[in-house]
């Protein structure tokens, strides 16, 4: 159960309206790595978690905080849209430069949302649950969470550089700091799980059933040998089970594919060494593929 507190987690007060920047800010609200994505990802990871205790509590702690971040950004977008589009349109009629800037505004902010935020990214693509990961394996999920926080922090830092508004920067600096904590949080949880479950996901699968002769081979499929010096190609493996093997110019290990002709009702292209007898639909395997069809 959730309770709503009327105050925001942190201030979301722009110094002045900026409908163009409001459009940019939509990315960290409804984009692939926006706050809506991590909010829903963490909520479903927590609700689905079958390991009661500290991990479930921790996931839902951060999930609940992400709801607050969605509220902060939505509030900021709404305030950046104050006075738009009427005032800017009037100015645009007098000043071509202002009119050009106005062209960068998302018209749906006014037409559809009544000068409010929307659950879309910065180009208007709707948020989708396909952005989220909740697999039931905590180590796999926490690694996905670390990626989400890394990409999210990167985008917020870029947006910080795209504005000089002190109020907007103040809110973004708070979000950047929380992303710093969240990255450290997921790294700590990953480290703890790896110590008890191992580094490879899933740890419960019997490794005897995998093709172990290639389990730790780095295969160079590129021109040159620069990748040979990487940690992934030399020394002990990170799971502690073997040593990395480097293979230059790896050879094909499989068969040459030979598929059977499709059934007649598919109407596919017959093999080159077969011909179709006109009118019968029957194939003549004796026909030489260099001779024209009759």
TrEMBL record:
Q: Which Pfam families match?
A: Mn_catalase
As given in the record, the signal peptide range reads none
Please note every region of biased composition (Basic and acidic residues). 274-285
From the UniProt entry, list the residue stretches annotated as the region Disordered. 253-294
The record's annotation in InterPro entries points to:
Ferritin-like, Ferritin-like_SF, Mn_catalase, Mn_catalase_C, Mn_catalase_dom
Can you tell me where the transmembrane regions are?
none
> What is stated as this protein's family in its record?
Belongs to the manganese catalase family.
Name of this protein = Manganese catalase family protein
Q: Which organism is it from?
A: Ornithinibacillus salinisoli
């Amino acid at each position: 159960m959730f309770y709503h507190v009327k105050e925001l987690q942190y201030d979301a007060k722009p110094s002045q309206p900026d409908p163009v920047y409001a459009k940019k800010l939509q990315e960290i609200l409804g984009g692939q790595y926006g706050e809506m994505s991590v909010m829903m990802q963490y909520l479903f990871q927590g609700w689905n978690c079958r390991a009661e205790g500290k991990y479930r509590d921790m996931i839902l702690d951060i999930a609940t905080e992400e709801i607050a971040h969605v509220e902060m950004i939505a509030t900021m977008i709404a305030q950046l849209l104050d006075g738009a589009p009427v005032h800017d349109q009037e100015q645009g009629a007098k000043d071509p430069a202002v009119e050009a800037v106005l062209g960068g505004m998302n018209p749906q902010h006014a037409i559809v949302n009544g000068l409010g935020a929307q659950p879309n990214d910065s180009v208007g693509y709707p948020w989708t649950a396909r952005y989220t990961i909740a697999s039931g394996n905590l180590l796999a999920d926490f690694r996905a969470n670390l990626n989400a926080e890394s990409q999210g922090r990167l985008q917020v830092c870029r947006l910080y550089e795209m504005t000089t508004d002190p109020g907007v920067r103040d809110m973004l600096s708070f979000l950047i700091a929380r992303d710093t904590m969240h990255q450290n949080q997921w790294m700590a949880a990953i480290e703890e799980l790896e110590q008890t479950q191992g580094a490879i996901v899933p740890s419960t699968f019997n490794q005897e059933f995998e093709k172990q002769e290639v389990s730790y081979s780095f295969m160079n499929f590129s021109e040159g040998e620069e990748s040979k010096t990487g940690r992934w190609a030399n020394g002990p493996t990170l799971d502690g089970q073997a040593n990395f093997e480097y293979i230059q110019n790896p050879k094909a290990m499989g068969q040459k594919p030979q598929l059977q002709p499709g059934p007649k009702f598919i109407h596919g292209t017959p093999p080159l060494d077969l011909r179709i007898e006109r009118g019968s639909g029957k194939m003549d395997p004796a026909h030489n593929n260099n001779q024209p069809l009759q």
